[in-house]
Structure formats: structure tokens, C-alpha cells
Amino acid sequence: MKGKQIMFIGDSVSINQCESLVCFLHSAVPQSQITQQTTGSITNYTFQDYGVSVIVFHTLFLVDIEEEKIGRVLKLDSLKDGEIWKNMDVLVFNTWLWWYRRGPKQPWDYIQVGGKIIKDMDRMAAFKMGLTTWANWVNAEVNTTRTQVLFQGVSPSHYNGSGWDHPEVTNCSRETQPISGSTYPGGLPQAAYVVMDELKKITKPVHLLNITTLSQLRKDAHPSSYNGFKGMDCTHWCIAGLPDTWNELLYAAITN
Ligand SMILES: *[C@@H]1O[C@H](CO)[C@@H](O)[C@H](O)[C@H]1NC(C)=O
Ligand SMILES: *[C@@H]1O[C@H](CO)[C@@H](O)[C@H](O)[C@H]1NC(C)=O
Ligand SMILES: *[C@@H]1O[C@H](CO)[C@@H](O)[C@H](O)[C@H]1NC(C)=O
Ligand SMILES: *[C@@H]1O[C@H](CO)[C@@H](O)[C@H](O)[C@H]1NC(C)=O
Prior knowledge:
single chain, alpha/beta, Rossmann fold, seven-stranded mixed beta sheet, four-stranded mixed beta sheet, 27% helix, globular, binds 2-acetamido-2-deoxy-beta-D-glucopyranose
């Protein structure tokens, strides 16, 4: 990993994994100085003695949201930030969490597809189109001899106990045990199939960090009410927990 720049690109789950990797590396080399710098949507942690930078680029959809006269427009065909991303050694992409947000939590007012501006559309179809734009960008723009590309599979949340045969459960507050065995009763979420389909369209080597099922089994691994803010967090993961496992898989993939 020496001299490498690793960039996580995505929503707060990417920040979660990035923080976990920084802690993980710090515990391996506790004496090494780390500098942290934040500029706009980019936070960069550099391990001075090793020339290793772990960077997180915060973006909710990978594709662009632009402020226009009519309001904020989610542009499913446009991916301008790629110009920054393609200079890195390792890229770890993720997007899913925000595609179904509505009301005040929806960070756009319109969707643009091709030349058309619309008020809304089927969200799974929008997710698929956004990923297609990303896949086309990888095919056209990324030099995969220089830059390794990974996609972090869908990170599951645990607000619906139907997934583990407890339909009465509506959050993870009382979950203290993983699901035993290696099969999640609820199966893979539909979004995971969309991700796998989109990755097949990429002709260049792209590695799927296939973390969905192993994370579905860990209903006990969320911050729940111990998250430092109000409410119940069954979406993110405790640092020094499950994301360390993701990072072990990441490490295996990038040193192979
Ligand atoms: C891709 O990167 C490799 C390794 O750095 C380099 O040798 C090659 O010229 C690059 N290809 C293009 C098309 O830039
Ligand atoms: C929980 O999941 C089940 C099975 O997928 C679904 O029928 C139900 O509507 C979901 N409940 C909520 C509150 O979303
Ligand atoms: C979480 O679920 C418990 C029961 O399992 C319930 O008592 C509590 O109200 C729920 N909390 C939230 C914030 O939904
Ligand atoms: C990812 O893992 C799941 C569960 O083990 C499996 O069903 C799926 O085929 C895997 N996907 C790929 C692309 O390997």
C-alpha cells in the first residue's frame, strides 16, 4: 500500500468505511503521524511516513446534482467529479442510501434524463440509470492499469424484522446477536441485483466488494441509539466493527 492514494467515493457509508480504515491502519502503525485535511466534499488522511493517503469524497449519487433556476436537478447522465477521481490509485465506490429519500430529506427537486426534466420517476430505475452512467464512465475514462476500481455492494439496514423472520421488530435496538449461519432469510435486496447487473456492463476489471449478505447477518453491529445524535441508527456500522471486515476484503482485493 506504500505510496498509494485510496479514495472512497459515496455517501455516509463510505465515510464510515474510510474512518474504519484510518483507525485500522493507525492501530498497525500507532507512531506514524497522520495529517487530516478537509476541503469541500473531500477529506484526506495522510500517513506521513508511508505516503499513504486515505481519502473520502462525499457524494450521494455519484452522478451530479446541479443548482439551476428551477431548483436542484439530479442529472442521471452527468458525472463531472470523475475528473478528480480518475487520478487516484484505488477507487472504492458506493451509492444506495439516498435513492429512495422523499420529502425534506430528498436533496433534489427534479431529475434530468437525457434532454428531459421530470418531477420524479421510479427510484430503482433512477438508481440503475445512475449506475449505468458510472459504468460508462469507468469504461471510457479510467485507466485500470494504473487505477484499481472497486464497488462496495449495497450496505443493508435493519429496520424491518421481516428480513430475519421477526416481522414485529422495527429497529435494531435490541439486537445483540448476529443471525446464525450464512444465509439471510430475507435474501438479497433488489438493489444488489441491480448493482451486479450494472457491473457486468463494464469491460474493464472492476471488483465487487460483495459485503451485502455478510452485513445483513450483522443486525447487532449498528450504533443503534449509541450514535451521538437523537434517533435510532440501524444504517451505519460501529467503527472498529463490521467495516473492518469490509476493509480486510478491500485489502485482499488491492494487494492481490
Ligand atoms: C495507463 O497507465 C499505465 C500505467 O501507469 C501507463 O503505462 C499507460 O500509458 C496508461 N494508458 C493510457 C491510455 O494513458
Ligand atoms: C418489511 O418487509 C416486508 C417483506 O419484505 C414487507 O412486506 C413490509 O411492508 C415491510 N415493512 C415495512 C414497515 O416497511
Ligand atoms: C425500537 O424498537 C423498540 C422495540 O423493539 C421500540 O420499543 C422502540 O420504540 C423503537 N424505537 C424507535 C426509535 O423506533
Ligand atoms: C455476492 O454474494 C452473494 C451472497 O453470497 C451471492 O449470492 C452473489 O452471487 C455474489 N455476487 C457476485 C457477483 O459474486
